[in-house]
Amino acid sequence: MTKTWWKESVIYQIYPKSYNDATGNGVGDLLGIIQKLDYIKSLGVDMIWLCPIYESPDKDNGYDISDYKNISEKYGGNDVFEEFLTAVHEKGMKLMMDLVLNHTSDQHYWFKESRKSKTNKYRDYYFWKTSANGEPPTNWPSFFSGNAWQYDETTKEYYLHLFTKEQPDLNWENPEVRKELHDIMEYWLKKGVDGFRFDVVSLISKGENFSNTELDDFNDIINKHYANGPKVHQYLRELNANVLSKYGAVTVGEGPGIDLENGPLYVDEDREELNMIFHFGHMFIDAGAGGKYDIVPFDLLDFKKVFNDWDTHLRDKGWGSIFLGNHDFSRMVSRFGNDGEFRMASAKLLATLLFTMRGTVFVYQGDEIGMTNVAFPSIEDYNDVETINSWNEAEHNGEDMDEFLKKVHTTSRDNARTPMQWNTTKNAGFSAATPWLKVNPNYTTINVAEQENDPDSILNYYRSMIAFRKKHLTFVYGNYECLDFENEHIYAFRRWDDNADFLVLLNFSDKELRWKNHLAGRDYELVKSNLTTNTPDATLKPWQAKILKLKS
Ligand code: TEU
Question: 445 exposed, middle or buried (CB, 10 Å; 0-12, 13-18, 19+)?
Fold first, then answer.
């Protein structure tokens, strides 16, 4: 396995709209992030991943781009971006931009032209279809409710949109489209951007034929009709050869339908496509057969299996990403930990997991202070298009809306998008104006300022764990083996190489437990714990995490 700086990196994900508002309009901006660069650097991170900041009508908060070469004025425009990029580099960090290349906004010039006439130069930039019977061309569901085809009056045809109707899918079959997209990437790389996160990269190659689906389960539909299309690897190799490799850009591809079989193909070093992928194995672990609103309890065995399987599949030739939260899922401490009595311990336990696994670690803003889910009293308080569309669909289907609101509390993407909690002043110190999305009321107790002053805070634990990982590259490159797999409450694993041998013990429960002593006859020392009082053995208090260094 080749050793590379980005494999050893910790990447900090920022949702710019919710990070820090320096201009006082209720929306986070680049100047606001510049003000926080010392804070970000102090965590020990190497790279920042910024969610999309290009011009956008914001139907899906920037994942609907209307101009790829211009930074939205609400974030400061291109000039402030240049200032920001320079400042990031001056601090010794790197920048990864988010690129959405599967679809554009319907307000992008290409689409505005495309919809004008069937003979327009840009017509084939998108997928247009007629329909014989007044029905959409296929019965495909979109990710965000409703059919994935939208009728357009001007030319009396339908266009494809796997997400909202304001996010028409680009036709990568068309070489002109690929050329334009390559050019966009080159534009940002020439400015000095260090890498990209490619949104839904698994969806860029559509099947040769569009046909009705017989399937009901949305995941099955994704796998059969939408994801990992016939030319996806060809397109990525072309992209790598023509653009990415010339600049040494670091890449991570995201996408539904990436699984253990096809995932390694994206990141196999010999294939020269992408560096890393995000898979969703653990992120949909609490979703039942009916999807994310069919909530099932968290099962530690399923969770361990996801990590074990991926580690095995990427071990030899690829590289993984390790993350427990992002802007699309509820807060990690609320999902996988205990955000009540054991919030502190469980947030630190999850951090221990993050920084001891093999792969590049991604930390989502706010997780470093243990930010939790929010439970807004009304659907009016929510912003996310996925939440709103699902709500409308549930209402249309006559569901019990009080019950549905509870599900929204558990699963809404807005759980992760509430403003960053900086201090106890108005709006958590995020903005002087009314924030675009309400602040989580628990900011009075959960915020950066309080944790800065507390050596035992979650924030300082993140700092110490990042430093610990960097000191012991065994956690980055070493072997991984899960021990006592059948244990329903303890996640125990070994990380070792020629230099060191570590045992990580994580108690995912509210009870004190003793790990069956597999340590008999071994000499070991406790090198890390998420609690302040410890016994140097395999006894674990509720949500305790211990790292033992095995000596013989
Ligand atoms: O997400 C793709 C994706 O898989 C999500 O739609 C996911 O299924 C959903 O969020 C789970 O609730 C990417 C972006 O990360 C997301 O923010 C965008 O909305 C989406 O693509 C469309 O660009």
Answer: exposed
CATH number for the domain formed by residue range(s) 5-105+176-463: 3.20.20.80
Atom nearest to 329 CA in ligand 1: 12
- Checking 31-39 for CB contacts under 8 A at 24+ apart, the result is 31/76, 31/80, 33/84, 34/83, 34/84, 34/87, 37/87, 37/88, 37/91, 37/93, 38/91, 39/448
pTM of this prediction? 0.98
Q: Cα–Cα distance between 466 and 474 in angstroms, integer?
A: 13
Our CA angle for 181, 184, 187, nearest 5°, is 150
Dist CA 204 CA 207 (whole Å): 10
From the candidates 157, 199, 386, 501, give the one annotated as an active-site residue. Answer: 199
pLDDT tier at 550, thresholds 50, 70, 90:
very high
Contacts of 376 (CB under 8 A, 6+ apart): 382, 409, 414, 438
How far is residue 466's CA from residue 49's CA, in Å, rounded to a whole number? 17
Mark whether 199 is an active-site residue: yes
| Active-site residue (options: 29, 166, 254, 414) | 254
Residue 466 in contact with residue 346, Cβ under 8 Å? no
Q: Which residues pair with 252 in a beta bridge?
A: 197, 276
Question: What's the rounded Cα separation, in Å, for the pair 446 and 339?
Answer: 11
- 493, 478 in Cβ contact below 8 A? no
Q: What tokens appear for 506 in the block?
A: 């994580």
CA atoms of 144 and 5, how far apart (whole Å): 37
What are the residue ranges of CATH 3.90.400.10 in the chain?
A: 109-160
Domain with CATH 3.20.20.80 in the chain: 5-105+176-463
Residue to mutate, 59, 143, 383, ligand 1, most ligand atoms under 8 Å from C-beta: 143
- Fold classification of 479-550 (topology level): Immunoglobulin-like (2.60.40)
Assigned CATH for 109-160: 3.90.400.10
pLDDT digit string, tens, across residues 374-410: 999 999 999 999 999 999 999 999 999 999 999 999 9
The answer to whether 403 is a known catalytic residue is: no
